[in-house]
Design a protein that fits this description.
The chain has 25 helices and six strands. The chain is 64% helix and 5% strand. It has helices at residues 2-32, 36-39, 50-65, 88-101, 108-134, 140-149, 151-156, 164-183, 190-204, 208-226, 229-232, 239-256, 267-271, 281-289, 292-305, 311-328, 333-347, 354-364, 366-376, 380-401, 418-425, 438-449, 455-460, 471-482, 491-497; strands at 40-41, 44-45, 410-412, 463-468, 506-511, 516-520. The N and C termini lie far apart (90 Å). The radius of gyration is 26 Å and the shape is elongated. A four-stranded mixed sheet has the order 3-4-6-5. A two-stranded antiparallel ribbon has the order 1-2. Residues 228-233 have low confidence and may be disordered. The chain folds into two domains: 8-46 and 85-229 and 237-261 and 272-376, no CATH class; 388-520, Rossmann fold. By secondary structure, the chain is mainly alpha-helical. A hairpin with a 2-residue loop joins β1 (40-41) and β2.
Length: 522
C-alpha cells in the first residue's frame, strides 16, 4: 500500500506537466486557427495571401506530375515565367499531407495547404515542451506560453497560410535547442540534430537561417576563445556532423539548384506594398513579444558578464540581432519571437525570486493581449476591411472560375490577385506577387493607366483576358509602382465603368460587384 502511494506521488508531477502541455496545445491551436471563418467560407477554402496560392499551385503541379523540384513558374510573368526562390521541402510536406487526406475528402489538396502550418506549429510546441522538460529548464512554461500566444508566431502558423516561415520556425527551434545542449556538453546526438536542422533550414530559405547560423557560429568562436587551449583542441566527434551538414547542402543543390536573381528597378516602389518588408517599429515588436523584450538584453548581459551562464551570451547575440533586423524588416518578427521565447529560461532567473519573475512576465504580456483584442474584436474600420477582403476573395473566385473552361491565354490582372486567379482558373497571369514577376507587374500597370489598350503589349504577352477591379485602388497602385501619374482617362476606368460599349477587340464575358472580365479577340 505504501509503495502504491509513493508511486502515485511520483506520477503527480508528470500528470501536472502533461495537463499543462495539453492546455497550452489547446490555447495554441485556438491562436493558430482564429481565422477559420475566413478560410473555410461557403463551399471553398481561401488562403491568406498571394504567396500561399502560389505555393499551392506548385503543390498541385507535384500531385499532377510527381514529386520534383519546380524551378520555373510559367504561370506568372507570362509567357516568359520566373525562376522562383521557393524550394521543395514545404511542397513535399503539403503533398504528403494531401495524400494522407485523400481518402477522406475530395478537397484533400486544399485542406492540406490550410492545415500544414498549424500542424507544424503544434509540432514545434510539442518538441519544445519535451526538450525543456527533459533539460529541466527553469520557467519553461513561460517559454511555451509565449510560443503559443505570440501574435506573430500565430501568424506564421496560421490556418490557411502554407508559407515557408512555419517550417523554418520548427527547424530553427530544433537547431537552437540542439545548440543549447551542445553548449552544456550533452553533445551525443545533438550535434547531428543541429547539423541536420540548420542544413534543412538553409534548404527552405537561404536568407534568415544563414544570418542566424552566422551569429551562432560567431558565438561559438568567442566561447572557444575564452576556453582553455586544451579544451579548444578537443574536436572529437565534430567531423561527422559537419559531413552531415555539407551532405544535406549538396543534396539541396542537386535537387533545387542555385537560384539567384537581380532586382528590378521598380523593386523599391513595389516593396512599399509588402507588409513584411516594412519596419516593424517598437510597438510592433512589443505586440509580438511583450514589454520584457526591452529589458532582455540588459538582463542577459548582466548574467553573462557575471559568469553565471555562458549561454546568456548566445541568447544576447541572437535577441539583439533579431530585434535590430525586425526594426528594419517585419519579416524577422517570426524569428525574433522564437528566439526571445526560447531565451526566457535564461532571462527570468535574473529576477531572483520566482514570484517576481512570474509577475513581471505576465505584466509584460499586456501588448500581446491588446493585439489579440484588436484581432478578435476589430473596431469599425478594421472590421469593414476584413469583411471587404473576404468579399473580394469570394468575388475574385467567381471571376476566375469564369475562365476555367476557356482557351489558355495570359490574364492581365491587379498583381496582388494573380496567384489566386491562377489557382482558381488554371490560366497563367502576366503579373504575380514575387519580385521576379516585376517585369510583368510593371507592364500590367502601364497597360491599366494608358488611355487605350496597347496592342503591342497584348501580342507580346499573349494576353487572352483582362480583369479590372475598383479603379481608384488599381490606378493609384499602378502610379506608385511606375513612379508617375496617369496622363488622363485610363483604360482601367473605361473598362470598369463600361456598360455595353468597350474598346475595339475586347468583349465583356463576366461581371460581378467587384470585377469585370474581358476577352481579347483573336
Amino acid at each position: 500500500m505504501l509503495g502504491k502511494i509513493c508511486s502515485l506521488k511520483k506520477m503527480i508531477p508528470i500528470l501536472r506537466e502533461g495537463a499543462w502541455i495539453v492546455i497550452l496545445l489547446v490555447v495554441a491551436f485556438g491562436a493558430f486557427t482564429w481565422n477559420r471563418d475566413s478560410v473555410f467560407f461557403g463551399d471553398a477554402i481561401y488562403f491568406l495571401d498571394g504567396d500561399c496560392f502560389s505555393r499551392m499551385t506548385r503543390v498541385r503541379m507535384i500531385e499532377e506530375g510527381g514529386l520534383r523540384s519546380i524551378r520555373h513558374h510559367e504561370w506568372e510573368n507570362f509567357p516568359k515565367g520566373t525562376k522562383p526562390h521557393t524550394t521543395m521541402p514545404l511542397d513535399a510536406l503539403i503533398a504528403g499531407l494531401s495524400q494522407i487526406l485523400r481518402p477522406f475528402s475530395e478537397r484533400h489538396l486544399a485542406l492540406a495547404g490550410a492545415w500544414i502550418s498549424p500542424l507544424l506549429g503544434v509540432g514545434l510546441l510539442v518538441f519544445l515542451a519535451v526538450w525543456s522538460a527533459a533539460a529541466r529548464l527553469p520557467y519553461r512554461r513561460a517559454m511555451l506560453l509565449l510560443v503559443a500566444v505570440s501574435p506573430i508566431m500565430a501568424h506564421g502558423f496560421q490556418l490557411g497560410r502554407p508559407d515557408h516561415q512555419s517550417l523554418l520556425m520548427l527547424l530553427l527551434g530544433v537547431a537552437l535547442a540542439a545548440e543549447v545542449e551542445i553548449w552544456k556538453g550533452r553533445a551525443s546526438g545533438w550535434r547531428y540534430a543541429s547539423a541536420g536542422a540548420w542544413a534543412l533550414a538553409l534548404w527552405v530559405s537561404l536568407f534568415e537561417p544563414l544570418i542566424l547560423l552566422g551569429v551562432v557560429l560567431l558565438a561559438r568562436g568567442l566561447r572557444r576563445g575564452l576556453r582553455s587551449q586544451a579544451q579548444a583542441k578537443n574536436t572529437t566527434g565534430r567531423a561527422m556532423p559537419v559531413a552531415l551538414f555539407l551532405g544535406i547542402l549538396a543534396v539541396t543543390l542537386w535537387i533545387d539548384g542555385w537560384r539567384a536573381a537581380g532586382f528590378h528597378p521598380a523593386f523599391a516602389r513595389w516593396a512599399l506594398n509588402i507588409g513584411e518588408l516594412r519596419s516593424a517599429g517598437w510597438s510592433g515588436i512589443f505586440s509580438w513579444c511583450g514589454w520584457l523584450l526591452a529589458a532582455a538584453p540588459v538582463l542577459l548581459a548582466w548574467r553573462w558578464i557575471r559568469g553565471r551562464e555562458r549561454l546568456c551570451g548566445l541568447w544576447l547575440a541572437l535577441v539583439s540581432v533579431a530585434a535590430g533586423l525586425s526594426l528594419y524588416h517585419a519579416r524577422w518578427g517570426y524569428f525574433l519571437a522564437l528566439v526571445f521565447a526560447m531565451s526566457l529560461p535564461w532571462i527570468l532567473p535574473s529576477l531572483r525570486k520566482p514570484w517576481l519573475a512570474w509577475l513581471v512576465f505576465f505584466i509584460s504580456l499586456w501588448p500581446i493581449a491588446a493585439e489579440w483584442d484588436r484581432r478578435l474584436y476589430p473596431e469599425d474600420e478594421a472590421l469593414r476591411a476584413r469583411v471587404e477582403n473576404l468579399a473580394d476573395a469570394v468575388a475574385l473566385r467567381e471571376a476566375a472560375l469564369s475562365l476555367r473552361q476557356r482557351a489558355i491565354g495570359g490574364v492581365v490582372a491587379p498583381w496582388w490577385f494573380c496567384p489566386a486567379i491562377v489557382w482558381w482558373s488554371g490560366q497563367p497571369c502576366v503579373g504575380g506577387t514575387s519580385h521576379q514577376s516585376l517585369p510583368g507587374i510593371v507592364e500590367s500597370c502601364e497597360f491599366y493607366i494608358a488611355e487605350a489598350p496597347d496592342s503591342e503589349f497584348i501580342q507580346k504577352r499573349k494576353v487572352g483576358y483582362i480583369l479590372v477591379y475598383e479603379p481608384d485602388r488599381l490606378i493609384s497602385n499602378s502610379e506608385q509602382i511606375l513612379g508617375r501619374p496617369a496622363a488622363g482617362a485610363t483604360i482601367a476606368e473605361r473598362l470598369y465603368t463600361a456598360r455595353k460599349d468597350s474598346p475595339v477587340g475586347l468583349k465583356k464575358i463576366f461581371a460581378n460587384r467587384f470585377f469585370k472580365v474581358y476577352e481579347v479577340a483573336p
